[in-house]
Specification:
mainly beta, lipoprotein, 7-stranded mixed beta sheet, Laminin, membrane, 42 strands, 2 helices, single chain, about 575 residues, signal, glycoprotein, 5 domains, disulfide bond
């Protein structure tokens, strides 16, 4: 008989022709009386763990195990094979809108076009939704929101003399000079030197600007009014003057210098060239100015031939009174010609300083709201007019030895607070009155008869006839302003007469001192003294005495909410 006990513990006994024979178990080698573990991990052909380099072998007594690297799974016949994490969303951490791309042993997540993020978190990129920042600012997206930046004030200075177009080397100089490389640039930059620099607009010879492959800009530089524009960056190499083209952005700033949004070049030994910004091209000056280069910087300066007149007339501002803003404009060149510093002109509130505007001439312009306290201004109401007043202070230039007191220039704007508008319902359902404000601006008051309680559909016929059961929807609105105006419309007294003469014949009061007629149960005031609209409704009636027409009249006014309570208060 054959017994395993007669063999090595890692062997088994088998009978052959009446004789017993000891054979080592799988994973062991020997003659049966002596069996040693086979080290499968030592021989590439005895295991399939690392067949593709995706795992490694771990020896065990009589066997081995395969450990796969991250991103791989073990299959008996194939060893460690790639896991397709993109086939099942539970196997990856990509954002639901992201694009999952499988790789051997891993995967990547990419946000789709129009989204921002790292692929594991994606959100809509507001900067790609139209132009949220306008043409003068750049939209910068970050997680959760975005911001608008002006690259003229947010940029990186590059002060590298080696960028000059006059800095040239020959091919054989490569062994003696290290050619510069701009592959680390990305963002907004301003080139500086002894004076401001700009990227040249013409092809630059090879081995110029301290590099092997110089970069120039194909296209003209913009003006200030152009905002941010796109141009093509070109590189001069053996294939031509504009090899490897790609887009960059450029903006001209009010100081006469340029800023550029640069990308890293295609490879090393590329660098951006610069030349002095001596040109006045692209500088938008007013007709009373001329472009000059001072200290290497181009700018707008008043022409020398400007003639002075009377001091009071020359320094008299243009005042434009609006419901939202008041604009006060001085001739910049006349102010400077009289020896005053246009950079330090201010209103009563010193922080409210003038800005330069250029159109038919150059101006110093102030913009303030017609509200009490705005830029230090004040207002008062005498019952018929609301007057807003403020003061502009002109400071003279100082030579460092003496200084003179500031000259105050007062200005005001008057806003009527007592006006009348009339509506003839039987003949005209829509009337407009234009009121001048302080002789420099105007606003429009419109009174209309509407068909619906939403006051959206006015009657358009030349004559409107209504039954006695109809409801009159009457609306009054001030146009020429938005909700940012400090004024609201107040309907003070509204009444009806049977003739066009508001002072003749019987009169039916609808509103008296803003208060509705308590004896008319059909009267409803929807809005009065809270915005630039006034609305009320009541049932149609007719006057006794054979009259067949109704004339509506309203005495209205503007009320300044910055220092008054404008809505009516019920005393019930």
């Amino acid at each position: 008989t054959c017994s395993d006990s007669d063999c090595h513990p890692n062997a088994t006994c088998s009978e052959f022709g009446g004789y017993g024979e000891c054979t080592c178990k799988e994973g062991f080698a020997g003659d049966g009386s002596s069996c040693n573990d086979i080290y499968e991990c030592q021989d590439f052909y005895t295991n399939n763990c690392n067949y593709y380099g995706n795992g490694y072998c771990v020896n065990t007594i009589g066997s081995y195990t395969c450990n796969c690297y991250s991103g791989y799974d073990y299959k008996e016949d194939f060893g460690c094979v790639d896991i397709d994490e993109c086939a099942d969303s539970s196997l990856n951490d990509c954002d639901p809108v992201a694009i999952c791309t499988n790789h051997y042993g891993s995967y990547t997540c990419t946000c789709p076009q129009g989204y921002y993020g790292d692929g594991y978190h994606c959100e809509i990129n507001e900067c790609l939704q139209g132009t949220p920042c306008g043409s003068n600012e750049e939209c910068v997206k970050y997680i959760g929101s975005y911001s608008c930046i002006d690259p003229c004030s947010s940029n990186t200075i590059l002060n590298d003399p080696w960028r000059s177009t006059s800095n040239t080397y020959g091919y054989w100089d490569y062994w003696y000079y290290w050619y510069h490389c701009d592959n680390g640039l990305s963002g907004w930059y301003r080139f500086k030197g002894e004076y401001d620099q700009k990227i040249p607009e013409h092809c630059i010879p090879q081995y110029s600007c301290g590099t092997a492959i110089p970069i120039w800009m194909n296209g003209s530089h913009p003006t200030v009014s152009d905002g941010i524009v796109n141009r093509t960056a070109c590189s001069n190499w053996y294939d031509g003057c504009c090899t490897y083209p790609y887009n960059i952005s450029v903006k001209m700033c009010p100081g006469g210098f340029y800023v550029y949004k640069l990308q890293r070049p295609p490879s090393c030994n590329f660098a951006y060239c610069t030349e002095s910004n001596y040109s006045c091209s692209g500088v938008d000056c007013a007709p009373d100015e001329e472009c000059r280069i001072v200290g290497g910087v181009s700018g707008c300066y008043c022409k020398s031939g400007i003639q002075l007149g009377n001091l009071e007339d020359d320094l008299k501002p243009q005042v434009t009174c609006g419901l939202e803003n008041i604009e006060v404009r001085f001739s910049k060149c006349l102010v400077e010609k009289w020896g005053y510093n246009t950079s330090s002109i201010h209103l009563r509130d010193y922080s409210c300083q003038g800005i330069i505007e250029r159109s038919d001439k150059s101006y110093i312009t102030f913009i303030t709201r017609p509200a009490d306290g705005s830029c230090g201004g004040s207002s008062w109401n005498n019952g018929s007019v609301i007057r807003y007043t403020n003061t502009v202070y002109l400071a003279s230039y100082s030579d460092g030895v003496i200084v003179r007191d500031e000259i105050p220039i007062d200005f005001h704007c008057d806003y009527p607070s007592d006006m009348e508008i009339n509506l003839l319902t039987a003949i005209s359902s829509y009337v407009v009155s234009v009121f001048n404000v302080a002789g420099t601006a105007n606003f429009t008051i419109t009174m209309g008869l509407f068909q619906d309680s939403g006051y959206t559909t006015p009657y358009t016929d030349s004559k409107v006839w209504l039954s006695s059961s109809s409801i009159l929807y009457v609306g009054v609105i001030v146009t020429g302003a938005t909700g940012s105006s400090p004024f609201v419309l107040v309907m003070k007294n509204c009444y009806a007469t049977p003739t066009a003469d508001s002072f003749y014949g019987p009169r039916y009061d609808i509103l008296t001192n803003q208060c509705p007629n308590k004896n008319d149960p059909t009267l409803s005031v929807a809005e009065n003294g809270v915005s630039l609209k006034g609305r009320f409704s009541l049932q149609v009636f007719k006057f006794l005495g054979g009259f067949d027409k109704i004339y509506l009249h309203c005495q209205v006014g503007l009320c300044d909410t910055s220092n008054s309570y404008c809505a009516a208060v019920s005393m019930d």
